[in-house]
Automatic annotation (TrEMBL):
Location of the Helicase C-terminal domain: 235-385
Keyword set, alphabetical order: ATP-binding, Cytoplasm, Helicase, Hydrolase, Nucleotide-binding
Top-level taxon of the source organism: Bacteria
Gene Ontology MF terms in the entry: ATP binding; hydrolase activity; nucleic acid binding; RNA helicase activity
One Gene Ontology term, aspect cellular component: cytosol
UniProt-recorded name of the protein: DEAD-box ATP-dependent RNA helicase RhpA
Organism field: Comamonas piscis
Biological classification of the source: Bacteria, Pseudomonadati, Pseudomonadota, Betaproteobacteria, Burkholderiales
Catalysed reaction, written as an equation: ATP + H2O = ADP + phosphate + H(+)
Chain location of the short sequence motif Q motif per the record: 3-31
Record domain Helicase ATP-binding: where: 34-212
Start and end residues of each stretch annotated as Disordered: 382-489
Length: 489
């Protein structure tokens, strides 16, 4: 077999780990990228999500770093030689776990650093020395500024999900990180999508790169059934629950465009009896990891998330993905539906389209180069919530009507009765007027300042003259502490 891992002649510890993980043959991206990376050349690889891009760069890097393997306890003997940068915390943690599995029979050390967690445990790991450092850009810069990470001996740089890494939001941090690295290095870029603009930006970081495209750029997996249903914003939740019920779907990703909408939809689905959890950027790292773990263990059926989970997360046997909101960026559509139908399995991708999403659907058509047919989804005329409340509403209306009839006698007459009351004699109507409120005339008098009163200890003193009578201020009398003796007088 030409695409067998045994043909790569990897080191025995790596071959043993691959065998234990159940890997027998390489995927197309692995078969083309691994031999090139083993030669030390820069690579720009494009492949569909779920095709094994992580193994395509981690295995050849580990093979080339086996010459640096040593059992020394000194951190100086374990400098950072490979740097893997990823856009999200979840993806960084996932890649770090996979690299650790590949290297578990070697003496090469690896660790991961990302935001949302305490820096102290990460600092302790970095101080011990690691050969492979997996990181997100923001937290790596924090460690660089704190002098916890020294990158002057890095030989390999990997930018996974490179289109997002080179996006406008990541570009300044990426430029700062690359300024700390040696000029002579091997740079690898792997992603599911590459736009022409991204290719031009990536060209400034790579030296004579070899482009590997095992599938047409931005192509979706053929194993994923893509359906687009027309639904208003008010009907989307009903369509979602009906598809889940009709297709008997056990688990699914539900993607939305905003953090607030993610939390609200998760709470609403929970109130309807579905086991749902929210995953978005405002969640703490501990909450995000717990939600992912609960989804992996089957404790959560629906993982409602923003595009933070659309990049590279590898959760096996997820049968469906729902785009509750059509993504603003057409490339995010490819990443979203790539969460299902992984490793050759079949999957379902359902996108709910409202009238305001026409332009976004057109952008997706241009990207994937396929005609999209938006179908009408058959729903009952009345929403389920209204049918369920019909009996209660009628009962409440009958009770309210009886209350209105019972209290009509005590209410003020209206219409003709009110006009008749206006025709009553004046003296009769005056009897119903409220009595006037008594007022104290003291509070109606204007303010009048009082003349200065004599001191309490001098009963014979005259009142002090008013200001303005003389040019000097009159002297104020002060009480004596001791009464003068007769001799002093």
């Amino acid at each position: 077999m030409t695409n067998s891992f045994s043909n790569l002649h990897l080191a025995e510890p790596l071959a043993k780990a691959i065998s234990e993980m159940g890997y027998a043959s390489m995927t197309p991206i692995q078969a083309q990228a691994i031999p090139v990376v083993l030669t030390g050349k820069d690579v720009m690889g494009a492949a569909q999500t779920g095709t094994g891009k992580t193994a395509a760069f981690s295995l050849p890097l580990l093979q080339r770093m086996m010459v640096h393997e040593n059992s020394s306890a000194s951190p100086a003997r374990h400098p950072v030689r490979a740097l893997v940068l990823l856009p999200t915390r979840e993806l960084a943690d996932q890649v770090a776990q996979q690299i650790a599995q590949f290297a578990k029979h070697t003496k090469l050390r690896s660790t991961v650093v990302f935001g949302g967690m305490d820096m102290k445990p990460q600092t302790l790991e970095l101080k011990k020395g690691v050969e492979i450092l997996v990181a997100t850009p923001g937290r790596l810069l924090d460690h660089i500024e704190a002098k916890n990470a020294v990158l002057n001996q890095v030989e390999y740089v990997v930018l996974d999900e490179a289109d997002r890494m080179l996006d406008i939001g990541f570009l300044p941090d990426l430029q700062r990180i690359l300024s700390f690295l040696p000029k002579k290095r091997t740079t690898l870029l792997f992603s599911a999508t590459f736009s022409p603009e991204i290719k031009r930006l990536a060209g400034s970081y790579l030296q004579d790169p070899i482009t590997i495209e095992v599938a047409r750029p931005n192509e979706t997996a053929s194993t994923v059934e893509q359906r687009f249903y027309a639904a208003s914003d008010d009907d989307k939740r009903r369509v979602l629950t009906k598809v889940l019920r009709d297709r008997q779907i056990r688990q699914a990703f539900v993607f939305v465009n905003s953090k607030l909408g993610c939390s609200r939809l998760a709470r609403t689905l929970e109130r309807e009896g579905l086991r749902a959890a929210a995953l978005h950027g405002d969640k703490s790292q501990d909450e995000r990891l717990k939600a992912l773990e609960a989804f992996k263990q089957g404790e959560v059926d629906l993982l409602v998330c923003t595009d933070v989970a659309a990049r590279g997360l590898d959760i096996k046997d997820v049968p469906a993905v729902f785009n509750f909101d059509v993504p603003f960026n057409a490339e995010d559509y490819v990443h979203r539906i790539g969460r299902t139908g992984r490793a050759g399995a079949s999957g379902l991708a359902v996108t709910l389209v409202s009238h305001a999403d026409a332009r976004h659907v057109s952008d997706i058509e241009k990207l994937i180069k396929k005609k999209i047919d938006v179908e009408n989804f058959g729903l009952d005329e009345q929403p389920q919530r209204e049918r369920f409340n019909d009996g209660n509403r009628e009962r409440r209306e009958r009770e309210a009507g009886r209350e209105r009839e019972g209290s009509s006698a005590s209410r003020e007459p209206r219409g003709r009765d009110r006009r008749a009351r206006d025709d009553e004699p004046q003296d009769r109507r005056e009897r119903y007027r409220p009595a006037p409120v008594s007022r104290d005339p003291f509070f109606d008098k204007p303010y009048e300042p009082k003349a200065a009163e004599p001191a309490a200890w001098d009963a014979n003193a005259k009142p002090a003259p008013t200001r303005g009578a003389g040019s000097s201020k009159p002297r104020r009398k002060v009480a004596a502490l001791f009464k003068p003796s007769p001799a002093s007088e």
